[in-house]
Design brief:
The complex is a heterodimer of chains A (256) and B (328). Chain A is of the alpha/beta class and 256 residues long. Chain A is 39% helix and 24% strand. Chain B has 14 helices and two strands, in the order ααααααββαααααααα. The chains are: A alpha/beta (256), B mainly alpha (328). At the A-B interface, α2, α3, α4 and α5 of A face α7, α8, α9 and α10 of B.
Chain lengths: 256, 328
């Protein structure tokens, strides 16, 4: 029902010294779908995100995104391919305004360099204006437009998560990786965030998320992949995962 | 729509900068004497140096403990080309900027792969190497006793070498440097630099080529220092290596931090106050170093963000008073 795979993880392994964080992992993320990665603490979820975004390099295996082998590409090159992410602990630029944070996400859509910066040329002025209006659009989408000129460091936890989301969307990405976006949010904030995530999926953006809230995962995801000690132990639709005996045994327990 | 206008954030600072530069322009008319004007010229050189250092440290968050080396390099290139090879000073100024930028690029490419303390140590080492170079290449640089007979600035046949001429020539460059820094802080590149300072990983994941930007900004801050060096050497017609040692790098750092690191006005306030302060402390003969130290400690204890926030608070208070009066 969904499109072809936009992201394929192909036999990826990563270890730190003797500790294996991800072991020969393979799965695919179909385009314009919401896929969740779940598993107990230490299952390798955050490592997986760092491998996909290029913050860490795999020991073996490769990652193909939108037809491009990404091995050896720096994170900024991967962002240019259309890959955006948020962080488990929000990595907000605290001494900048909310709008300026989003404009950093818009960085790749501008080309004004040092000369334009120093002398504020007409071209850079026009570019800046276009960036700003797009920045506001994204802030309106997540509901932070009224905070645009406030210092990002003054925002509450839930607003920081929204700002990270807005900053990621400002890239106009093909895929967004969301690392525990609901952690620390109230129920209401979580619902708001889920609406946003569904909205971007419906616009054709693929979503890959790591999340502990099972209610959220089962409601939101089109597909789920389950990790345990760096290995894949299950994959399928939410219905299939909830019936998978091995997954129930190691992670879900009998409560779901 | 009005809220899309980006003038909001920049306008007050453009206003303050214009007022400041206008003040600088008319000051010679009310200056008590030529000596004081001379001191202010040197203050301008420090403003330029500190603004360049603030771009590197305050905007982009990269530490440099060897910034005086680029100041020295700019001064020596300009000094040697004019005194030994007879180049016109203005051409030598351009050559010193180009030469210093090339050296900064060669230094920045390996060192900017380092972070935090390691970068600080590397820049410290680079500063020491440069200082040794100034002392040892005596044939060119004049060695420890310095290079003499450096000509004053002249543009074509118009000589600038008076106190007043130097004052205006220096502050014209400072004005350009300040406008560049202000534009930069509000630009796409400025935001990317600020992002690197905030979270390098997040900046990288937003598509910012963090390493490349760090190298570019390192070279730009060296260019500011090179201009300051050339202005310095042609103002006092002399240059000696002792001016560009480690303590000089520390002084620049102190000026930036006391003024307010990262703030646009920080380096201006810090450089002006710390270059004028010794002149006023001279009256307390014997205690001047002690007082200087106490003032620094006091500022850092009670104003850890430097003096710049004090000034912007005053401005805010002034504005709210105005608003209250207007509203009442």
């Amino acid at each position: 029902m969904r499109g072809e795979a936009i992201l394929s993880i192909e036999g990826v392994s990563k270890s730190y010294g003797g500790l294996t964080a991800v072991s020969n992992l393979s799965f695919q993320v179909p385009a314009a779908a919401i896929k969740a990665v779940i598993g107990p603490n230490g299952a390798g979820k955050s490592t997986l995100f760092n491998l996909i975004t290029g913050i860490e390099a795999p020991v073996s295996g490769g990652i193909v995104f939108d037809g491009c082998h990404m091995n050896g590409l720096k994170p900024n090159r991967r962002a240019a391919l259309g890959l955006a992410r948020t962080f488990q602990t929000p990595q907000i630029f605290e001494n900048m305004t909310v709008l300026d944070n989003v404009l950093v996400g818009r960085h790749l859509h501008g080309k004004a360099g040092l000369f334009a910066a120093l002398f504020f040329t007409g071209a850079s002025r026009r570019e800046d204006l276009a960036m700003r209006s797009r920045g506001f659009e994204v802030l309106e989408k997540v509901g932070l437009a009224d905070k645009a000129h406030e210092e990002a460091g003054d925002l509450a936890c839930g607003q920081l998560k929204l700002l990270e989301m807005a900053r990621a969307l400002a890239l106009d990405p093909k895929i967004v990786l969301l690392d525990e976006f609901a952690a620390g949010l109230t129920r209401q904030e979580t619902e708001h965030m889920m609406t946003i995530v569904r909205g971007i999926r419906d616009e054709g953006v693929t979503v890959l998320l790591v999340e502990h809230d099972m209610h959220l995962v089962m409601n939101l995801s089109d597909e789920i992949v389950v990790l345990n000690f760096g290995e894949k132990i299950g994959e399928g639709t939410p219905e299939e995962i909830q019936k998978d005996e091995r997954v129930i045994e190691v992670y879900l327990g009998t409560e779901v | 729509m009005s809220k899309y206008r980006y003038s909001q954030a920049t306008a007050p600072r453009w206003f303050s900068l214009s007022v400041f530069l206008a003040f600088v322009a008319v000051f010679p008319a009310v200056s008590p004497n030529a000596y004081f004007l001379n001191i202010l010229g040197f203050a301008g050189i420090y403003v330029l140096l500190c603004t360049g250092l603030n771009i590197l440290m305050g905007y982009a968050g990269q530490v440099s403990l060897g910034h005086a080396a680029f100041w020295g390099l700019g001064a020596y290139i300009s000094g040697v080309l004019t005194a030994k090879f007879g180049w016109p000073p203005v051409v030598a100024l351009a050559a010193s900027v180009v030469g210093t930028c090339v050296v900064a690029l060669a230094v920045g490419i390996p060192t900017l792969r380092l972070k935090g303390h390691y970068l600080a140590m590397a820049t410290l080492g680079v500063g020491m190497i440069f200082h040794t170079f100034f002392v040892q290449f005596a044939d060119l640089t004049g060695g420890p006793s310095g290079l003499v007979d450096v000509p004053s600035f002249s543009v074509g046949s118009i000589a600038i070498g008076t106190t007043l001429g130097n004052y205006y020539f220096i502050w014209a460059w400072v004005a350009i440097g300040l406008m560049g820094a202000l534009n930069l802080s509000q630009s796409r590149m400025g935001r990317a630099l600020n992002a690197i300072k905030g979270s390098e990983i997040a900046a990288e994941c937003m598509g910012v080529d963090t390493y490349r930007y760090k190298v570019i900004i390192f070279v730009l801050s060296a260019a500011y220092a090179a201009i300051a060096g050339s202005l310095y050497v042609h103002s006092i017609n002399f240059v000696a290596p002792a001016t560009f040692g480690f303590m000089s790098s520390v002084l620049l750092l102190t000026m930036v931090v006391v003024g307010g690191i990262g703030a646009f006005w920080g380096p201006v306030i810090g450089a002006c106050i710390l270059s004028l302060l010794p002149e006023y402390l001279r009256a307390y003969e014997g205690l001047e170093v002690l007082l200087y130290g106490l003032i620094l400690v006091g500022v850092m204890m009670f104003m850890p963000n430097g003096l710049a926030p004090l000034f912007s608070n005053l401005r805010l208070r002034f504005r709210s008073v105005n608003r209250a009066e207007g509203g009442g």
